[in-house]
Amino acid sequence: MKVKVRQVELAGAEADLAVVGLFEGGELPAAVAGAAGADTAKGGFKKLSLLRTDGFPPVLVVGLGKSDELEAERLRVATALAAKEAGRLEATSVAWALPDGFDPAAAADAVVTGTVLASYRFDRFKSDDGNEAVRLESLTLLGPAEVADSAERARIAAEAQNRARDLQSTPANFATPSFLAERAEELAATSEALSVDVLGRGELEAQGMGGLLAVSQGGPEEPKLIVLRYAGGGPGPSFGFVGKGVTFDTGGISLKPGAGMQEMKMDMSGAAAVLEAVGAIAELSLPLNLIAVVPSTENMPSGTAIKPGDVITQYNGTTVEVNNTDAEGRLILADALAYAVEQGAERIVDLATLTGAVVIALGSTYAAVISNDDALAEEVLRAGAESGELTWRLPLHPEYKELMKGTVADLSNLGKQRKAGTITAASFLEEFVGETPWAHVDIAGTAWDVGREYTGKDASGFGVRLLIELARHHSS
Questions:
Q1: How many CA atoms lie within 13 A of 443 on its CB side?
Q2: 322 φ/ψ angles, rounded to the nearest 5 degrees
Q3: At what angle do helices 464-475 and 148-169 cross, to 10 degrees?
Q4: Helix, coil or strand: residue 299
């Protein structure tokens, strides 16, 4: 989507649709206050009114609620509603008058983000019947020139999030581990600061990646360990992002129920977020060094699949009893985390659709954060709050580690008791980072079906903007 900033009056916006925000008890701009129906426009949050007047494009009035309650998330939501109304009106261009009384740069970020995300559609596999829906192609912000940088950053981040949604939504017969590797190679080709290595089955066997190999052995698709490096320079320790890339999860021998299993094509949502966030970080030329590690495989049941009770050896030499093959994400992440540490990542954040337990605990409003480092955890929480991709910290404790001790091996991949499922999964992962500051973000409840106005009920791309914001803070 084209995004520009102009210093013109509403009448000179040159757009199919003009949008203004209205606070409760507030007044419309004088130029449209006399339009037919203007006196009935409401400032209640999410209220919409369409005005038509001579010399103007149609003007959509969006209720912003009470002026002292306006913050970035409410503005993202209001903007998303306007974008959807623009689609209904078949407008290809929209001009937004930034609201008064709110930081202009923050307003520009919220308006761009809400508009770009709400305009997203995944229609790759729909037939062309000659009635293709009109798409919103351009957004003009009517505000000070100084907001241009903020608007451009927001555009890059939101479009990266939409690309992650594309990856999430692509069916698993297309979005294989090789497909994700090819996407990483495409990203690397866009910037001299990016480079990529892809390890296939032979290299994984030579490296001793027992977790990734074990999960992959039930299906024909070759597993991949995708390593995307960004050399942006700058001070400070190297960052590591790790994203779970299970491109389809049947549960393996511990088979999942059939109802809703089609959603398991999105079990690579962490990988999608990590890959596209790194691409955006490179586009933004942020001054930091970063390594992204994506372990990718399918988890399939067959005569060659790993079985409950089998023992494997992870990349760092730890042995694990696989007591449930549907707890596969932690097995592949364990290898990837140990590899990221070995490759020089000095601070690590992993994203994974890891546990159903997090949906019970936090629903689709917050992702869970579990960390061995208070400072890093606070940075993740702050980045989530600023991006609107909210996180909530859960604790670690030695007693949780005890639940993950193995009987015939060092660890079990599933606790023997149904206690603290999200935390015990993270406690398992902690065993593979050593003393490296690390934060695990469980996005199983936020990766799809969130229901916010700007993400809808399908793939959300959650984590892309959080990681970008985290990298921005890290590089400043």
A1: 36
A2: -90, 90
A3: 140
A4: strand
How far, in Å, CA of 447 to CA of 248, rounded? Answer: 15
Compute the distance between CA of residue 320 and CA of residue 331 in angstroms, rounded to an integer.
Answer: 9
Q: Give the chain's largest Cα–Cα span.
A: 80
**Contact between 181 and 41 (Cβ < 8 Å):** no
Q: Which of 31, 98, 99 is nearest to 65 (CA)?
A: 99
Paired strand residues for 21 = 62
Tell me which residue of 137, 245, 258 sits closest to 198, measured CA to CA: 245
431, amino acid identity: E
319-322 and 289-299: which strand pairing?
A: unpaired
CA–CA separation, 443 vs 467, rounded Å? Answer: 13
**330 flagged as catalytic:** yes
CA 34 to chain centre: 43
Residue 66 has what pLDDT? 97
Query: Has residue 60 got a pLDDT over 80?
Result: yes
Q: Is residue 265 annotated as part of the catalytic site, yes or no?
A: no
**Interacting residues of 90 by C-beta distance below 8 A, sequence separation 6+:** 134
Query: Among residues 256, 382, 393, 401, which one is catalytic?
Result: 256
Task: Give per-residue pLDDT as tens, 390-414.
Answer: 999 999 999 999 999 999 999 999 9
Choose, from 76, 163, 165, 330, the residue flagged as catalytic. 330
- pTM (predicted TM-score): 0.97
The sign of the torsion formed by the CA atoms of 319, 307, 172, 155 equals negative
pLDDT tens-digit series, residues 420-468: 999 999 999 999 999 999 999 999 999 999 999 999 999 999 999 999 9
Side-chain half-sphere CA neighbours of 178 within 13 A: 6
What residues contact residue 173 under an 8 Å CB cut-off, 6+ apart?
A: none
Residue 290 C-alpha from the chain's centroid: 18
* 356-385 pLDDT per residue, tens: 999 999 999 999 999 999 999 999 999 999
| CB distance 107 to 75 below 8 Å | yes
